[in-house]
């Protein structure tokens, strides 16, 4: 997908492609690197160069970005004495190793601009000032160390630190946000340019949350204002967000990422968010000489109006006329001419006389997404199922006399951790209630291998409690509790010390008798059996017995479903509609297309995401293997496959190409 996406960005008037580098993808274990296939960073940089664009490489290597664990590989957690992102020798050792690895890889391929390559900027760290105070004097020391370490790598191009007002010289401090023309205090030295590394075109979305809609007019207003205030670099975060495939999304973040960007999740144009900024980019480039070489002045031209003017000695002139009144048009005088400005808008005058662009006047025709059904998976005999095994205490090999922390136990090898115990209640135990407290994301509870109830927290509510009436048998009872993480945390200080998983488990009988299992002997199993056997891969299907009698009744849970399908004809993007499923993960031909959580509704009573992108690169013409892991009781018989296109509102003729 890279060439087409880069071409569409270039077609929108973009000059620079900015990307993070994902440490946890590239260094799976200390010193073991992977830059193959989708992780081929060199190939990505060379594709940018081949299309005549520049690159900004945000190495981090902490990146946040709603990416699981902020991009850190989980093996860092087990380095003795480590504290992330501070003046800590173990952390600095591994951070420097990875940063140097990336820089040297880029150098070896001649990819820095100082070598004739496309990379004009590199970033070290990421929004560190948000947490710097938590580390006291060690925070400031770490900033100085990180800046010097990066600069000493000798890239020949500038380094940046975003949202870091104390970025040491020569590292450039930059702004992130939606209104940097209003909020940015500017560079911390007169010899540094004013740069905006993240102009949020929307916002990330979490399960249970609504999409954030930001208008093309608002984006254009703040870009024009930043340029008017001597801004020299603006990056759209995101211009294309794409898909959090596999388990890469951070805690509670949905699989689709910044679908409201100028290029949507599928790489299709979202209008007018693509076309309106394109016109703005052209207008700004039309004024490049006075912007670069002219002297700037600014002055009031009304109660809520301002003029920013750049003039050259040779006569070149450009003006930005700003109307900050969000409700009323403004009629104003500028250089003996009368101009009318729309509410909350900026007009650009490349000769200080004639308006060629106004941020609130949109000429681009809006479009909408068209979903065309391609296949219904409604034939009962086309599906087979495998019910995962509910482990009991005697099945476990890992045991402890306490409730273990979830992430440290799974090492991010799985979302799932089983907590199991066996106990025999007194004969007097009646009306038992299972009480669970969790700092994880989801809990599925089982008594004697029978599903009892599921519960979950949310992005804003970190812990949750469950009180569940249960049925116990005379004799020994097996309690199996599945703790689930929907992504690891990605932000904040002391990421290495976070706690997740169960914190208290009790059974109360007739409100007088209490069994406290907090310090009981527990048995643990990391992951599900189907995960361990990798039954989502075609070569492993025979590792388990699949049944042709599928059952998605209310008591069904932890079920793997499989079927096959042919790829739709054409080249339109493809998506699975999972609106009748509950929660789980989907694989196509062994490739995970991500987690789904359709049963988690927004305040409006609808799922946060129902369509899940299946890249055509994952598909064969026929016989594609679809595997669905359903944690709850979703109905696979109403899954459907769609092709995705866009059409102008007044046309309804689908397209997925650049406008002519």
TrEMBL record:
Keywords: Apoplast, Glycoprotein, Glycosidase, Hydrolase, Secreted, Signal
GO annotation terms (biological process): carbohydrate metabolic process
Domain Glycoside hydrolase 35 catalytic, first and last residues per copy: 1-283
Xref: SUPFAM superfamilies: (Trans)glycosidases, Galactose-binding domain-like
Catalysed reaction, written as an equation: Hydrolysis of terminal non-reducing beta-D-galactose residues in beta-D-galactosides
Upper classification of the organism: Eukaryota, Viridiplantae, Streptophyta, Embryophyta, Tracheophyta
Main location: secreted
Protein name, as recorded: Beta-galactosidase
């Amino acid at each position: 997908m890279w060439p087409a996406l880069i071409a569409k960005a270039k077609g929108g008037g973009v000059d620079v492609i900015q990307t993070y580098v994902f440490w946890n993808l590239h260094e799976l274990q200390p010193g073991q690197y992977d830059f193959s296939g989708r992780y081929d960073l060199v190939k990505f940089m060379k594709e940018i160069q081949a299309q005549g664009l520049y690159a900004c490489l945000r190495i981090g290597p902490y990146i946040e970005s709603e990416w699981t664990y902020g991009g850190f590989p989980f093996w860092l957690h087990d380095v003795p004495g480590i504290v992330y992102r501070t003046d800590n020798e173990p952390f600095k050792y591994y951070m420097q190793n990875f940063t140097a690895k990336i820089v040297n890889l880029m150098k070896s391929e001649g990819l820095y601009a100082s070598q004739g390559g496309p990379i004009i900027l590199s970033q070290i760290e990421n929004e560190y000032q948000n947490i710097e105070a938590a580390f006291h004097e060690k925070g400031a020391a770490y900033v100085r160390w990180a800046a010097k370490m990066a600069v000493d790598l000798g890239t020949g191009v500038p380094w940046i630190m975003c949202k870091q007002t104390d970025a040491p010289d020569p590292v450039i401090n930059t702004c992130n946000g939606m209104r940097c023309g209003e909020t940015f205090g500017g560079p911390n030295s007169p010899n540094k340019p004013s740069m905006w590394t993240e102009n949020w075109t929307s916002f990330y979305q979490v399960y249970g949350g609504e999409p954030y809609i930001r208008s093309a007019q608002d984006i254009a207003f703040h870009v024009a204002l930043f340029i008017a205030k001597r801004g020299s670099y603006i990056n759209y975060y995101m211009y294309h967000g794409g898909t959090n495939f596999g388990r890469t999304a951070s805690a509670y973040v949905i699989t689709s990422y910044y679908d409201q960007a100028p290029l949507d999740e599928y790489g299709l144009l979202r209008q007018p968010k693509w076309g309106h900024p394109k016109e703005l980019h052209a207008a700004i480039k039309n004024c490049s000489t006075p912007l670069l070489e002219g002297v700037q002045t600014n002055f009031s031209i009304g109660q809520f109006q301002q003029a920013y003017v750049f003039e050259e000695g040779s006569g070149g002139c450009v003006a930005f006329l700003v109307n900050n009144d969000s409700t009323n048009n403004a009629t104003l005088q500028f250089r003996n001419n009368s101009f009318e400005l729309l509410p909350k808008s900026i007009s650009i005058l490349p000769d200080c006389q004639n308006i060629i662009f106004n941020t609130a006047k949109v000429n681009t025709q809006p479009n909408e997404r068209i979903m065309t059904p391609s296949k219904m998976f409604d034939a009962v005999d086309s599906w087979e199922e495998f019910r995962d095994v509910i482990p009991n205490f005697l099945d476990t090999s890992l045991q402890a006399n306490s409730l273990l922390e979830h992430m440290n136990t799974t090492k991010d090898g799985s979302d799932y951790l089983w907590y199991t115990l066996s106990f025999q209640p007194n004969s007097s135990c009646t009306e038992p209630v299972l009480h669970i407290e969790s700092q994880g994301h989801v809990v599925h509870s089982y008594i004697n291998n029978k599903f009892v109830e599921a519960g979950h927290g949310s992005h804003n509510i970190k812990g949750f409690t469950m009180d569940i009436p249960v049925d116990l048998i005379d004799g020994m009872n097996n309690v199996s509790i599945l703790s689930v993480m929907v992504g690891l945390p990605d932000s904040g200080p002391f990421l290495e010390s976070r706690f997740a998983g169960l914190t208290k488990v009790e059974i109360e009988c007739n409100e007088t008798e209490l069994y406290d299992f907090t310090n009981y002997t527990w048995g643990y199993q990391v992951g599900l059996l189907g995960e361990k056997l990798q039954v989502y891969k075609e070569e492993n299907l025979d590792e388990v017995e699949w049944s042709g009698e599928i059952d998605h009744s209310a008591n069904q849970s932890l079920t793997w479903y499989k079927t096959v399908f042919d790829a739709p004809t054409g080249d339109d993007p493809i998506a699975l509609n999972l609106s009748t499923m509950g929660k789980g993960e989907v694989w196509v031909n062994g490739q995970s297309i991500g987690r789904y959580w359709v049963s988690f509704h927004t305040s409006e009573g609808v799922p946060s995401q129902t369509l899940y992108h299946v890249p055509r690169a994952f598909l064969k013409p026929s016989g594609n293997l679809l595997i669905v892991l359903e944690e709850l009781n979703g109905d696979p018989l109403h899954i459907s496959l769609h092709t995705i296109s866009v059409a102008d509102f007044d046309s309804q003729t689908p397209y997925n190409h650049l406008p002519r």
